[in-house]
Design a protein that fits this description.
Blueprint (H helix, E strand, L loop, with lengths): L1 E4 L9 E3 L14 E4 L2 E5 L4 E12 L2 E12 L5 E6 L6 E6 L6 E6 L1 E5 L4 E12 L2 E11 L4 E5 L5 E2 L5 E2 L3 E3 L35
Antiparallel strand pairs: 1-4, 2-3, 3-5, 4-5, 5-6, 6-7, 6-8, 7-10, 8-9, 9-11, 10-11, 11-12, 12-13, 12-16, 14-15
Length: 206
């Protein structure tokens, strides 16, 4: 069954969809909130199409664009495909696990898989994590493992600022001098090594 919602009836629309309880990360356990000027819902095919200031929010993860297509798999996990807005770009933002900063990105199309926590950025792709940033024609961001894959897509591209970009570019900031490597168990402070006396040797011979 298809349902259509028009933005003329309300300034915005918010829909909450529950996610499976067995999800591993906190964001995956949160409901998904959808908001747009217009929304079409196909309950049979499990497809939702949002148009006009479309927003998807799940925990700390946000997708903002002009057109958003959300599908649901057999296990209830959502996949979202965001098509660029007025400036041709869709926007992504998510808090990093165990940190206070965010991973942010933009591209002409952004695909987010809630099951795998993998977000893909297509054409004029840019992703910034903390002070580090990556630019390329295609970027894949694995939030579970905080890994990136970036490619040029085979041809010359342009960055989000319009500057010609024929290769993948990355800026990686050095680690803070205050950060120290984790100590090995035997090197923990306050736990000196214990010396045991050697066994006594009887000088008498039988």
């Amino acid at each position: 069954m298809k349902k259509s919602v028009c933005g003329a009836c309300a300034s915005s629309l918010i829909v909450a969809l529950s996610m499976p309880a067995q999800a591993e990360r906190a964001d995956r356990e949160k409901p998904i909130h959808l908001e747009a000027d217009r929304m079409s819902i196909d309950d049979v095919r499990k497809v939702k199409i949002l148009e006009g200031n479309a927003v998807l929010i799940q925990g700390t993860m946000e997708l903002r664009t002009s057109r958003l297509v959300v599908t649901e798999d057999a296990d209830g996990f959502q996949k979202a495909s965001a098509i660029g807005g007025a400036n041709g770009l869709a926007h992504f933002r998510q808090k990093r696990e165990g940190r206070d900063d965010f991973t942010e990105g933009e591209a002409e199309r952004i695909d987010h898989d809630a099951r795998s926590e993998v977000t893909e950025f297509f054409i004029r792709a840019w992703v910034q994590s903390g002070l580090d940033e990556v630019k390329g024609q295609y970027i894949s961001y694995d939030a579970l493992n905080e890994k990136y894959l970036a490619t040029t897509g085979g041809g010359a591209t342009k960055s989000a600022t319009g500057v010609g970009q024929a290769r993948v570019r990355a800026i990686i900031q050095p680690k803070s001098k205050d950060e120290k490597p984790a100590e090995k168990p035997a090197e923990k402070k306050g736990e000196p090594l214990t010396l045991k006396p050697a066994p006594k040797v009887n000088p008498r011979l039988d």
